[in-house]
Amino acid sequence: MTTSLLRKPGHALALGLLLVFAGCQTPPQSPKSTLEEQHGELTLREGDVIKIAFPGARNLEVPPLPIRRDGKITLPIVGEVIASGLTPTDLQNKLAGLYANQLLSHEVTVDVISSTFAVFVDGAVLRSGKIISDHPISVLEAIMEAGGFDYQKANTEKVMIIRRTPKSKEYTYYTINLKAVLKGEERDLFYLAPGDMVHVPEKFSWF
After folding, report:
1. How many CB atoms lie within 10 A of CB 120?
2. At the N or C end, where does the chain have fewer CB atoms within 10 A?
3. What is the CATH number of domain 3-39+116-200?
4. How far apart are CA 86 and CA 169, in angstroms?
5. Hey, is 28 helix, strand or coil?
C-alpha cells in the first residue's frame, strides 16, 4: 500500500511548529499489511475475555475470565491479578512466577477469546464518530462503518491515521492512499490499533 508521512505547508510557521513537535513524536514507519506484523501482541484491556491454561496443572484450570473494569482478574490460590496493560505474553510470564510453586513445567498460556475496542473516524465521511469493534478492523472497514466516504468531498488518496503508542504516549502519523485499494490496484490492508483516529480530508478546491 502506498504510504507517506504527514506533510505540512512549507511556510515559516508550519516549519517552526514541526521543529518544536518533532522531538515529541515517534518518526512514522511504513505500515505492514497484516495485523500480526503491525502490532505484534495487542495490549490487554478492560472488557477483554481471556482463557488461561496450565498444561502441567489441570487442577488450576478456570473458565474464560473477563478483565474487570479495575483491570484485574481473580484466580485460584493467588487471588486478584492485574491483567490490563499487559500483553498476553507478559501475563503468561507473570502467572508463571506467581504459580511457580504449583507448576512442574512452569508453563502457562493466555489466549484472548474476545476483545472489544474503539477507533474514531472523522472528516469527509457520512457519519463521524466512535466505531466499536470486536475483531481486527482495517482503516477501510472503519470508514465503511462510518457510513462510507462523502465522495463529493473526500480525498481518498490521503487518508490520515493518528496513532498513540501506549507505552511512550507519543503520536505516529500515517497517510494512506485508499484510492488504489478502491480501484483494485492494491490489496494490502492497514489494520487499526485500539484508539486510532482516522481522518478523511476534503479535496482541495479553488471554488
Report:
1. 17
2. C
3. 3.10.560.10
4. 15
5. coil
Phi-psi region of 203 (alpha: psi -120 to 50; beta: other; left: phi over 0): beta
**Contact indicator for 45, 194 with CB cutoff of 8 Å:** yes
> What cell was used for 22?
518533532
User: In the CATH scheme, what is the homologous superfamily, with its name and number, of domain 49-114?
Assistant: wza like domain (3.30.1950.10)
- Residue (of 19, 111, 97) closest to 62 by Cα position: 111
Kindly state the cell numbers that stand for 180: 488504489
Q: What is the pLDDT of residues 166-198, one digit of tens each?
A: 666 789 999 999 998 888 887 777 888 888 999
Distance between CA atoms of residues 24 and 20, nearest Å: 8
* Structure-model confidence comparison of residues 159 and 116, the more confident one: 159
Q: Where are the domains of the chain?
A: 3-39+116-200, 49-114
**pLDDT above 90: percentage of residues in the chain:** 47
Helix (H) or strand (E) run with residue 172 in it: strand 171-176
Rounded-to-integer distance, Cα 1 and Cα 104, Å: 47
